[in-house]
Amino acid sequence: MTMRRGFTLLEVLVALAIFALAAVVLGSAYVNVLNAYEVARRAARSDVDVKFARAALLAETDVDKAAQGGDFDSADGRHVRWTATIEPTTVADLFLVTFECECTGPDLPEPQRTKQVFRVLRPTWSQAADRATLRANAKDRIVKIQEKVNS
Q1: Report field, pTM of the whole predicted structure over 0.70
Q2: Is the Cα torsion angle 123, 124, 128, 130 positive or negative in sign?
């Protein structure tokens, strides 16, 4: 009976194939992690610009100026343009805002667009006549609900 003291050629080739496959999988995972970090870094920079544009919209007291939008150049050399569609709701002083922001710059391969829809309570955007009508309608609804509850 002879004892084997080494690996056969077939065993060595299988081990090399498994090692090569593992190296390819780990290498591609590493590249994906690096790409994800880059995407997150770019998104974080443009998030600052979008937040600043949204703050500019919310700071505007005139509804017509707010609806026109605006633009500015950020510290990173990007140009940011934003617009807003402002619609009144059935609640006094409450508005439905569709905010759109576009960031362009030398470090961006294509413009980054962001769209947000939110509600804003902004008394300075209301017209006095519209506010009075909406408040009267709300008062009527409350009275009807109270009558149903009490009967």
Answers
A1: no
A2: negative
Q: Which of 72, 117, 125, 122 lies closest to 96 in space, CA to CA?
A: 117
Confidence of residue 19 (pLDDT cuts 50, 70, 90): very high
Range 38-74 burial, b when 16+ CB lie within 10 A, else e:
eeeeeeebbeebbeebbebbeebeebeebbebeeeeb
Please state the domain extents for the chain.
9-144
Please state, in angstroms and rounded to a whole number, the distance separating the CA atoms of residues 125 and 84: 13
Q: pLDDT digits over 68-101, tens only?
A: 999 999 877 889 999 999 999 988 889 999 999 9
